[in-house]
Amino acid sequence: MAKRLYALGRWAARRRGRVLAVWVLLLAVAAGLGTTLGGKVTTEFSVPGVESQQAQDLLKAKFPQAAGGTARVVFAAPEGAKLGDAKERRAIAATLKEVAAVPGVINVTDPATTGAVSRDGTVGYADALFGKPANSVPQSAKDRLDDALDPARKAGLDVELGGTVSTPPAEVGGPAEVVGVVVAFVVLALALSSLVAAGLPLVTALVGVGVGVMTVQFLSRYIQMTSTATVLALMIGLAVGIDYALFIVSRHREQLADPEQDVSDSIGRATGTAGSAVTFAGVTVIIALAALATTGIPFLTVMGLAAAGTVLLAVLVALTLVPALLGFLGERLRPKSADKGADKGADKGGDKSVDKSNSRARKPGSWGLAWGRLMTRFPVPVLVVSVLGLLALALPATGLRLGLPSNETQPTASTQHKSYELLTKGFGPGFNATLVVVVDGTHVPAGQRETVVKKVADTVGKDPGIATVAPPNATPDGAITVFGVVPRTGPDDRRTTDLVHRLRDDAVTPVTDAGGTAYVAGATAAGIDVSAKLASALPLFVTIIVVLALLLLMLAFRSILVPLKAVLGFLLSIAASVGAVVWVFQDGHLTGLFQVAAAAPIACFVPVLLIGVLFGLAMDYEVFLVSRMREHFHHHRDARAAVEHGVERSGRVVTAAALIMAAVFGGFIFNHDPTVKTIGFALTIGVLIDAFVVRLTIVPAVLSLLGRHAWALPKWLDRAVPNVDIEGDSLPPRTTTGQAAERTAAPADPEPVGADKN
């Protein structure tokens, strides 16, 4: 692998103009397609096959009026007044008239006639039903709906919007995300000691992310995807794009510290060595994200594939565009301590301008060497403290509860959150957990349908967990009947989950006995169904990830103990990260600091995403750190020195990479969307734990204890495992500046990609 990537890097540096032109063209085409032909994203998380989705599909096919998107208009009377007062009645009537005129609205209820007013008369609601699903309602209609509320607002009423139509899509590009990128640039500048070198990873990452996100936006025209899919693709693509470029640029500058090192040869070597680690790490991220398809949940599959596509682009950018730009910069990236080499390059016609932002000469990796020696000197205390600390952080994960985001978790200033609070105040916590019972009496004799529905309603109403049963609404032929059920407890209460299971076990009996089918559906039931589906798919997904890690790392390091150690460390990182997420978002700690609107169950797909993404990122650091250790051990056969050397050479880069990822992900913690906020926090804390506690602390300690046994592989297995060479053992001898000058004077030698010079 290293030899082929070496040839690719040199080729990209020589053909830098063409390589740059191709990537600029790809970016322009993707931007054009994404902005002009981009599709619509949805805020709904549907899972085929679960009961709530079966009910929704049935309503769309046979009772479309009941399957359309809804906008719930919540009215609250001013202090000292009630909604039944003459002034308030007139304002509500005028508002509902305007709402009924909104394009797409087919029916509007009136709280005065439906009784949708609280007992004290201060809070009421009206439902506006659209003739199409919520994700198909255009933004223009939503804007008209908001304008239609003006009569009530002018009369002094508080008016807020809830319902499926009002759910806002996830958006990015706010100040927090921009600050994250700025912090990443500062870390790059400090790590590379060069402003020019720091700017290169940012530029290349933005090119890769631009192509990836715009392509995802274009594909949403043909594939239904949630708005979170685009955000995840942006988060992952930007973070790994910066890190992958950092790995190659830092290796290039490390090599250029030798005044005799030829620039072109250094670009090839950086691509062959660090590029091999990037390729290997990138493939693990891609496979881990693609493995989300094993959950059998379409929206997760699309999210995983979209993010995997941007990671693939990040790898291609790192292996082609980065070497091309390194070729353009030439001698400018040579460290100042290697001025002699820079001057030689200038004398030979190279770039005479040397980056003045370079720091003063100092021994690179000095703190890394000190840290590595500390870890190898006291491995047992380091392991005990680190593992116990991670286990303590993981404790809250034992109480993990999963669900789907509700309006309660929307920002406190949003109309969705305010409507949730008003409805809870006026009608009780269970009102926002309303369930929908759907009775399919198609195969029930027409004369028995009404009786069967009445039995179901009576059975449901007798359940102690039910507060109210709404009147039934049926199709003209009575084949399909729908009625709402209001629990006594909120959507995130365990008792509501138990209620749903009870209703599905007991309340549907009269229908099934008569030959029909009954479903318990609604947003709350859908959250319960999706969570159960993910819980059942999680063991298989984790198994795939663990087996994948063992195989890939055994292939990379030709060892059995190193992969086992890596997997155990990864599981510790996941447990601690999930524990931190539960402690903040579910248990409600530090909610003010992270602007969390309300403590609530974790979005059901966040743990799965965290496992897939963090696995890939953890393997990034594992490969980049341990490959330098194995490289040293392979040449010197000193296990302890190999560990110290690996931390010395890669510790600074791994630290910078982790801080960059944390800065990028951390910017999304302050996004208004509760799902994006949770994902951003989970990935931020996960990266920091895995990089600093597991990779830079536990890994050196464990490897120092294992000694030479860490790099052992049974002979029969050694013969069976192919040698992928990520350390660069197969690369040709180093080229000096003098040798490069001699070749420059000779006729041009067009070296094909993948040429073997050995």
Give a structural overview.
The chain has helices at 2-14, 16-36, 51-62, 86-100, 111-114, 139-147, 150-154, 175-192, 195-219, 227-256, 263-290, 298-329, 339-347, 366-377, 379-394, 415-427, 449-461, 494-507, 509-513, 523-557, 561-586, 606-636, 639-667, 674-706, 715-720, 737-745, and strands spanning 70-76, 105-108, 123-130, 158-162, 402-403, 435-440, 466-469, 473-474, 480-487, 517-521, 602-603. It is an alpha+beta fold and 758 residues long. The protein folds into four domains: 1-41 and 174-329, Multidrug efflux transporter AcrB transmembrane domain (Multidrug efflux transporter AcrB transmembrane fold); 64-162, 2-Layer Sandwich (Alpha-Beta Plaits), CATH 3.30.70; 367-405 and 537-729, Multidrug efflux transporter AcrB transmembrane domain (Multidrug efflux transporter AcrB transmembrane fold), CATH 1.20.1640; 435-521, Alpha-Beta Plaits (2-Layer Sandwich). Strands 6, 7, 8, 9 and 10 form a five-stranded antiparallel sheet that branches. A four-stranded antiparallel sheet has the order 2-3-1-4, sandwiched between helices. It is elongated.
